[in-house]
Design brief:
By secondary structure, the chain is α+β, with helices and mostly antiparallel strands. It is built from four helices and ten strands. The strands form three sheets. Strands 7-3-5-6-8 form a five-stranded antiparallel beta sheet. Strands 2-1-4 form a three-stranded antiparallel beta sheet, with no helix packed on it. The termini are far apart.
């Protein structure tokens, strides 16, 4: 199967390459195999490729495939999976290796994509609500139960911060 992979930390444009990789195993009981049709690129994905700032750059014996989320069509369903079926459009998160043609995922990390939702939107539909929840919690923490204006700041890999304005 084709995948975007890297075998050392570094700038994405220098270390990522399209390569042939072994297809993932499975699906085992409680898993599904998904043919990936769309996958986003997030700053967190790139941070994994680049390595942490200040940490030594590593080389890996086996290439790594980035990405944790995406959408596709179920090819096969493992034993015990009742809510999902082959041919169904689904989104998944967090499932390592999303920047490949195939992923094998635990069925509880896969959800059906509603009719009318495009592939690109579906590829993001699981992580964005988590981001919103994190933002809401940061706002609640910053307000300490008091009403008032709030300024929200955020940046790549900086997390979400909310500052209360008095």
């Amino acid at each position: 199967m084709r995948a975007i992979a890297y075998d050392r930390h570094g700038r994405a444009g220098q270390v990522l390459r399209l390569s042939e990789q072994p297809a993932p195993a499975g699906p085992a009981a409680g898993q599904v195999r998904v043919r990936v049709l769309s996958r986003p690129v997030h700053p967190g994905d790139l941070a994994g490729v680049e390595g942490f700032p200040g940490a030594p750059r590593q080389r890996f014996a086996t290439p790594r495939i980035p990405g944790l989320e995406g959408m596709g069509v179920i090819e096969t369903v493992g034993d015990g999976v009742r809510e999902l079926r082959a041919g169904q459009r689904v989104a998944f998160f967090p499932v390592p290796g999303a920047w490949s043609e195939l992923v094998t995922a635990p069925a509880d990390l896969v959800v059906p994509v509603p009719e009318g939702v495009g592939d690109e939107t579906a590829a993001l539909m699981l992580v964005n609500p988590l981001t919103l929840l994190s933002l809401l919690r940061a706002v609640e923490d910053a307000q300490h139960g008091q009403a008032g204006r709030l300024m929200q700041l955020g940046g790549p890999l900086s997390g979400l911060h909310a500052l209360k304005q008095d």
